[in-house]
């Protein structure tokens, strides 16, 4: 009798199990948080630079606009003052106007008497004598 040939049994070998290390809190919690914060800060700084660069012309435009308005108002005031002075000059160049201006500073014509009244004297004071 023929005996069957012994079969070779193959033993399945499992790959050696790696020893699992305990992950530290630093690797699990802190490091991802640090990376997130660093990226967030970088994005915020970049956004600030971009916004500052874009908004600078707008701020300059606003400042120039307010400066223009202020100068335009000053010009209007000076033109009004200039017109008033022009009218005064025309008035003073006339003989009657020159005489009026001379009287204001104290000049009198020959034969005239100069009366100087107090600045607040609009009427004579009431008498205080008892009746």
SSE diagram, text form:
Blueprint: H1 25-93, H2 95-104
What would you note in describing this structure?
The chain has a domain at 25-104. Helix content is 60%, strand content 0%. It contains two helices and no strands. It has helices at 25-93, 95-104. It starts with 24 loop residues before the first helix and ends in a 27-residue tail after the last helix.
In round numbers, the mean pLDDT is: 85
Helix percent reads: 55-70%
Beta-strand segment tally: 0
The H/E string reads HH
Q: How many helices? A: 2
Cα(first) to Cα(last) distance is 175 Å
Q: Mind telling me the C-alpha Rg?
A: 51 Å
Offer a quick outline of the entry.
Helix content is 60%, strand content 0%. The protein has 131 residues and is an all-alpha fold.
What structural keywords apply?
131 residues
């Amino acid at each position: 009798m023929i005996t069957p040939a012994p079969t070779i049994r193959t033993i399945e070998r499992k790959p050696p199990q790696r020893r699992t290390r305990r992950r530290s809190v630093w690797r699990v919690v802190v490091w991802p948080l640090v990376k997130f914060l660093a990226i967030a800060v970088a994005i915020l700084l970049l956004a600030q630079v971009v916004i500052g660069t874009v908004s600078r012309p707008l701020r300059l435009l606003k400042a120039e606009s307010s400066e223009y308005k202020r100068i335009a108002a000053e010009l209007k005031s000076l033109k009004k003052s200039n017109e008033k002075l022009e009218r005064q000059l025309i008035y003073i160049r006339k003989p009657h106007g020159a005489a009026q201006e001379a009287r204001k500073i104290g000049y009198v014509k020959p034969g005239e008497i100069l009366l100087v009244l107090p600045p607040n004297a609009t009427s004579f004071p009431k008498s205080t004598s008892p009746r």
